[in-house]
Amino acid sequence: MEYRIQRLLGSHVVGMPLMSDALAGNPPRIKVTRSTSPGSLDSERKGMHFLFMGAVGALRNPRAHGPDEADDRDEADEMLAFASFLMRRLDIEEAERQKAAEVEAQSAQ
Q: How many domains does the chain have?
């Protein structure tokens, strides 16, 4: 997830600062939301920012920097499902960028 966000931003920043750089702005540099109404969109945007920050802070960092403590299999499966959800949300941004590139290519013809 972290590497994918770095690629989308063209950044070498890592961890929680990367998540803030990508998702804290209004509008964020990376779109991972689906809501269309302004009130819901703002809430979802903030929530997704915190989910990505939490994934890095609570799931990645202890395993990358701390002692090697084995995770319970069920909990590890749940962490993978959560990571899959976040990766699917990054698909939203990549689809938007692909669509924009196609429009630009058609305009250039």
A: 1
